[in-house]
Structures are given as C-alpha cells and as structure tokens.
Description:
mainly alpha; transmembrane; transmembrane helix; UbiA prenyltransferase family protein; membrane
Amino acid sequence: MKLNLLTFTKNPMFLYFIFPSFYLLFGTIYAIPFSTLNVISFFLLYLFVLLNQVVETNFRNYFILKKKLSIRNVWILEVFIILSLLYFITIHSFVSGLLLLCYVIMVQGKYLFIHYDLDLLAISLITLFKSLLLNTFGFYIHTGFISIAIIPYLLPLIIPIFLYEYYTWNKVMTNNLKYLIAFFAYLIIIVLTWTIFSWWSFLLFLSTFFLPLFILNNRRRSTLYFSTIFTMNYLTLFLIFNLISL
C-alpha cells in the first residue's frame, strides 16, 4: 500500500492543534531560565489563539472558498475569545489585553484586504503578528516583562509562517518559486542563527530530506507540509540549545 506523507495534513487535529503552538512555544521555551512557567496562562493563551484560528477558518471559507458562513457559531467563539481577553487584562495587565485585542482585529479582519487587492500586505502583517508578537507575549506571561533579546530567535519563523499564511489564501506556487523560497529559507535561517547556535545551526538541514514533497508536489498542501516540518526542525534545535544552556 502506497503511503502518502501528506495525508495527515488533512486531519483537523493537525490544522487546529499543531501549527498554532508554534506561535507560543518559542517564547515559552525562551522564558524557562527566567521564571517558573505559568501553565494556566499558557493554556489560555493557546486556547485564545486556537479559537481565533477557528474564526479565521470560518472567514476563509466565506471569503476565499465562497462557502456559507455560520454567524451563530462565530458569535459563540467570539464570546470565549472575549472571556480570554478579560482573563489576561485581570491577571496580567490592561495593556496585554489591548495587544491581544489588536491581534483579534487583525487576524479576523485579514480577509477584508482581498477587496482592495492587498493580499500580500495582509499575509505579511499577520506573519509578523503570529511569529513575533505572540511569541513575545508568550514570553511575557511567564516572566512579567518583555525582552527584545528574544527577537533574533524569532526571525527564522517569518518564512515558514508566511508560507502557512500564503497557503490559507488558497494561492498556488510555481516550482521555480518553490526552489527560490526553499533556497532563501535555509540561507536566511543559517545566517540568522549562526551567531546564536554556531555549528548547531546545521541541524536545520535535517528538514531538507522533505524538500521533494514541497518542490515536486503540485498540491497546495505541500506548502503547509514544508512550513510545518521546517518549523518543527527549528523548534527542536531551539529546545535542545536552550536545555543545554541551562
């Protein structure tokens, strides 16, 4: 029986549980040497991100795939999102609630950009929100402060998360573009991480074994698959290095 390695990406468990964790885990891992982890806040922040992703998916189905939108379901999700915001305002700070509210407005309103042919602008902004803002906030909920020293560690996330966002807009890439993106993805991440991880950075090339699935497969889900494997590879390196540094 032929095994298709892309089959698991059709599983909602994968779509709704795996990728959103990348928006928080880097900040959480970076916070380990500074403070005891706040498990409750992490869980609620993850739930907050997850709920927003479900709303995003509903809006994607409506604006991109032209499917029917269930207003009732969206409003139920919004109630839980508001409760999450109230928790962060109460437990952490009013400013933290405002930052997360900005995130809500941005991610839920991103498909409105389609009416102004500003798709790439929306994708770029959301990429920054998810890779930098959420992981920085993920660090803050454990430590009570924000450190700009985390930013260099988060920059390598921009390309895979950009690819993921590109995928959600139902866009198709040519093989030549995939070659170019793969080349620059590894070049940029090695350059960015060399001063931090030194020779450990070469562990990032382990994910190149899966490049044929991204470059040679014409299905859009191959983009999702590559961005996930790429990020998981970097997360593994990031975790190992931080544990060694303790």
